[in-house]
Design a protein that fits this description.
The complex is a heterodimer of chains A (about 280) and B (about 550).
Chain A (H helix, E strand, L loop, with lengths): L15 H18 L7 E5 L7 H4 L4 E3 L5 H11 L4 E7 H7 L1 H9 L4 E7 L2 E2 L5 E2 L23 H8 L3 E6 L3 H13 L4 E6 L9 H4 L3 E2 L7 H10 L4 E7 L5 H6 L11 H12 L2
Parallel strand pairs in A: 1-2, 1-3, 3-4, 4-8, 7-8, 9-10
Antiparallel strand pairs in A: 5-6, 7-10
Chain B lengths: L4 E10 L3 H14 L3 E7 L6 E11 L10 E6 L2 H7 L3 E10 L9 E3 L1 H5 L9 H12 L4 H11 L4 H14 L1 H4 L13 E4 H12 L3 E3 L7 H14 L2 E3 L4 H13 L4 E5 L1 H17 L3 E7 L16 H6 L8 E3 L4 H18 L2 E7 H5 L1 E4 L42 E3 L13 H22 L5 E4 L5 E4 L3 H13 L4 E5 L1 E3 L3 H4 L6 E6 L5 H10 L3 E6 L8 H11 L2
Parallel strand pairs in B: 1-4, 4-5, 5-6, 8-9, 8-10, 10-11, 11-13, 12-13, 17-18, 17-20, 20-21
Antiparallel strand pairs in B: 1-3, 2-3, 2-14, 7-14, 12-19, 16-18
Helix pairs in contact in B: 1-4, 4-5, 4-6, 5-6, 8-9, 8-13, 10-11, 16-19
Classes of the chains: A alpha/beta (about 280), B alpha/beta (about 550).
Chain lengths: ~280, ~550
């Protein structure tokens, strides 16, 4: 089955989202080689430029509401844990409107992967500042320049409990593909911030020269936080990985609520037992 | 006794076992094969304040508590003062003489007696059970058996304490209201428990809720039953998460329910609309309490009806149904879960604190519960939003070699976003067809309960208010026709046609008369007058019967 759909692609020419789509496709193909069935990979997205990817990738899933995509992804995983769920988000979507859901998915160590397309701007709604925009952004909602300090997505996600935290770059398909594979294979909540220029607002040149690789993966959560605080926002690599029991296993062990749903007959017996005087 | 009903009322501070004493009384009555209705009135606090529990019982089915009690037991001064007017003619009040000076009734030194034991005020409930035991003619052995079973902590002290209270009240209480035994011992459950059991019978797999009175006990019950029934029961960060998690789970084919009250449902409305366009089957239990905003958390009202009927932006099929009794809550919940899956749309089981948290003896036949089942896609290329004659697109769930796309944007049949004018119109029409399909389906179902009477007036009520109406009419021996629409959206106008221009009155718990408006606007019902209550308290059958008499011709 093809990876493409018949949807008309409406990203701007040169947009970083193309790179993310290519890397995701590569990652899925690689995972298939490793034995993961494509039909077991399910996606969700929020609303924004990032989310258009939903229409351009021929996989099952939910094109949800702005900011609520990780809740959809969590709901899928809780009901049927055999599915691998990847949820796509923008910086406004996932760290603005959907901040609480993103943080809680990490807190729970929900076994899903969140790909945060970070273009530092609300692109689709014409360029307002986002949760990750550095101060001084002259957008239509901040004509004199924005003045809020941005979140540091790396330290934030390490702090709230994500068990795989990485930053990658839409201009480095190889790095992004590998990071996506690692994230999807990781058992637990994986968070990848993908640096992604949005064409009307940025130039690739603003990114290319600044990208730096993490020299080595930090060995502890404390070290990871320290490095996340120090590293500049163009530093890419895996900041943190740890093993912690995933949410659905803590909740119900080896159960699969939808696949092992109890028959009507047994349910009625159990209900009769409860209703017995 | 009021009519053929015996009522026990116990009042005191939160933390003194008031509710427990009420439940024990209810169990005593049901063990005699009698019918029971228990209503708990409590404040939004943990310790202190004033709580009371009213338990009415009869040898026939009864559908309300009575606020005139034959036996009132008060643990403290505030309770005494509050319930002065709740004593029935020939009723008895037993009060705590350590808290009150000499008043009419039977004073017992409840505090000083309880202080002799390490559990102290935690024993007041045991004292109330002792008073009740004496009053209904139980001997000490019968009483002790109940106490052993119901108060297993510190059994010896409890029995000793109960014995001394039993002896103290002998003179005024002993065998004052002997209770007739009846045919069958029945289980006592609350409305919320009944909703849970109905959902489980209907095939529930996943439940999400953020705690909110009066829906919280659904969450608690299902969390406790999760392992037994193989459920996932989750309390996430907010009601916004709740509804979106639910949509995610229903995408996998899991039968999913959520529960909340008005404020929580307000937060869910964005996701409610998402369920509308993605055609996600999600059942929402909306248990009303007095609003607006935080309102009065632990009391009852029916003022979220208009909101429930229209919530969510955009045009989509909304199903709203409301059970009148604890038993009906069981069947209607399973039926609603099935409707959500048959018609792939979100819907609301609308109830109120009065039904959610009141307890009744029930005769439930679980085999009569509906089983939720969608129409499945069988073979060939899959289109999630296939345009069919009845508007219902067959369902398929992951993992599948076919691609299944649910989309919050307007979409084509495959599920890809569209801005094409003809496709937008086509999809609106596809979804809209489901309304007609549903109405045709419901026309063959029992959607309105009508009890024909001999008086030339009809009384309309929905939800638990219908129970109050039935009890009021039974008390006053009146028999107008009573009409209870179980479905409020779509309102079964086909069943109501005949009543349009008859003499109609409505009873409801909303100051603006939201139910009256619905009947008038949707079904063209000519309503002469509406009896309203909006002080957070459920109707009392005696008071309501007076109000009904006043307006009957």
């Amino acid at each position: 089955m093809t990876f493409e759909t018949n949807a008309e692609i409406t990203w701007c020419p040169g947009c970083g989202n193309y790179g993310i789509r290519t890397a995701f496709q590569n990652a899925v193909l690689e995972l298939e080689k490793k034995g993961v069935k494509r039909e077991n990979i399910v996606i969700s997205s929020g609303i924004g430029c990032h989310a258009k990817l939903f229409d351009y990738v021929n996989l099952s899933g939910i094109y949800g509401l702005h900011g609520r995509n990780s809740s959809n992804a969590e709901g899928i995983k809780i009901a049927n844990p055999e599915l691998k769920v990847v949820t796509f988000s923008g910086d406004g979507n996932g760290l603005g409107e959907g901040l609480a859901h993103t943080i809680y998915a990490a807190k729970r160590n929900q076994d899903i992967t969140l790909v945060l397309h970070n273009n530092n701007v609300y692109a689709l709604t014409t360029g307002q500042f986002s949760s990750l925009t550095p101060p001084g952004w002259r957008g239509p909602s901040t004509p004199r320049g924005s003045f809020e300090i941005p979140f540091n997505a790396m330290s934030l996600m390490i702090e709230v409990g994500a068990t795989f935290v990485a930053r990658s770059y839409a201009g480095d398909i190889k790095h992004l593909t590998e990071t996506l594979i690692n994230a999807i294979e990781h058992e637990g909540f994986s968070f990848i911030e993908v640096l992604q220029p949005a064409m009307p607002y940025h130039k690739w040149e603003e990114y290319k020269d600044k990208i730096e690789f993490l020299s080595e993966e930090p060995k502890s959560k404390e070290k990871a936080l320290e490095i996340a605080h120090k590293a500049h926002r163009f530093t890419i690599g895996i900041f943190h990985q740890e093993i912690r029991e995933v949410y659905h296993k803590s909740l119900y062990g080896e159960l699969n609520p939808v696949k092992s749903s109890i028959s009507r007959k047994i349910r009625l017996e159990k209900i009769n037992e409860i209703l017995k005087y | 006794m009021t009519n053929d009903v015996f009522t026990f009322l116990v009042g005191g501070k939160a933390g003194e076992g008031v509710k427990k004493a009420g439940s024990v009384a209810a169990h005593i009555f049901s063990s005699l094969g009698r019918h029971v209705f228990q209503m708990d009135d409590y404040m939004s606090l943990i310790r202190g304040g004033h709580n009371f529990s009213v338990v009415s019982t009869s040898t026939r089915w009864l559908s309300s508590h009575y606020m005139k009690a034959d036996l009132v037991v008060n643990f403290d001064k505030r309770s005494c003062e509050t319930h002065m007017n709740n004593i029935a003619d020939n009723g008895i009040m037993v009060y705590n003489s350590d808290e009150m000076g000499n008043i009419e009734g039977i004073g017992i030194p409840l505090s000083s007696e309880a202080d002799k034991y390490p559990m102290k005020s935690l024993m007041y409930g045991v004292g109330a059970v002792a008073v009740l035991s004496s009053t209904i003619g139980f001997n000490k052995e019968q009483m002790n058996n109940i106490i052993k079973k119901q108060y297993p902590r510190g059994i010896e002290d409890n029995i000793k304490f109960a014995g001394s209270i039993y002896d103290m009240v002998k003179v005024g209480c002993e065998n004052k209201f002997p209770l007739e035994h009846e045919d069958k011992e029945r289980k006592i459950i609350t409305g919320n428990e009944s909703i849970c059991l109905g959902a489980l019978a209907g095939g529930l797999n996943v439940y999400y809720a953020y705690p909110m009175t009066p829906a919280s006990t659904i969450l608690h019950f299902l969390a406790k039953q999760a392992e037994n029934f193989g459920l996932a029961v989750v309390h996430p960060e907010s009601e916004i998460a709740v509804i979106n998690l639910a949509i995610g789970s229903s995408f996998t084919g899991a039968k999913t329910m959520v529960g909340t009250s008005g404020g929580g449902f307000a937060l869910m409305t964005e996701g409610y609309s998402l369920a509308g366009i993605t055609e996600a089957p999600v059942l929402i239990v909306l248990s009303q309490r007095p609003g607006p905003a935080t309102g009065v958390p632990t009391y009852t009202e029916q003022a979220d009806l208009s909101f429930a009927l229209t919530a969510g932006h955009g045009d989509f099929l909304r199903i709203v149904a409301s059970p009148a009794t604890v038993e009906e809550a069981f069947y209607l919940t399973a039926e609603m879960l099935d409707l959500m899956w048959k018609f792939q749309t979100p819907g609301i089981l609308l109830t109120e604190k009065h039904l959610s948290e009141s307890a009744m003896t029930v005769d439930i036949d679980p085999t009569r519960a509906k089983w939720a089942e969608p129409i499945f896609h069988k073979i060939g290329e899959y289109n999630r939003y296939l345009d069919t004659n009845d508007g219902i697109s067959p369902m398929l769930f992951p993992p599948s070699s076919e691609v299944i796309k649910w989309n919050s944007y307007e979409h084509d049949e495959y599920g890809i976003t569209t801005e094409d004018a003809s496709m937008i119109a086509k999809m609106h029409e596809k979804r809209y067809k489901k309304t007609e399909t549903l109405i045709n389906y419901l026309k063959n179902k029992e959607t309105v309960e009508i009890i024909y009477g001999e008086m030339p007036t009809n009384i309309f009520a929905y939800g638990s208010t219908y129970m109050s109406v039935l009890e009021a009419l039974r008390y006053a021996k009146l028999n107008p026709t009573t009409i209870q629409p179980k479905y409020l959206s779509p309102l079964p106008v086909w069943e109501l046609e005949d009543f349009k221009d008859q003499d109609n009155i409505v009873v409801e718990q909303s100051i603006s008369g939201q139910f009256t408006k619905l009947l008038t606007e949707k079904a063209g019902i000519n309503v002469r007058t509406t009896i309203k209550r909006y002080d957070g308290r459920p109707f009392d059958p005696i008071e309501l019967s007076h109000q009904i008499k006043e307006v009957l011709n």
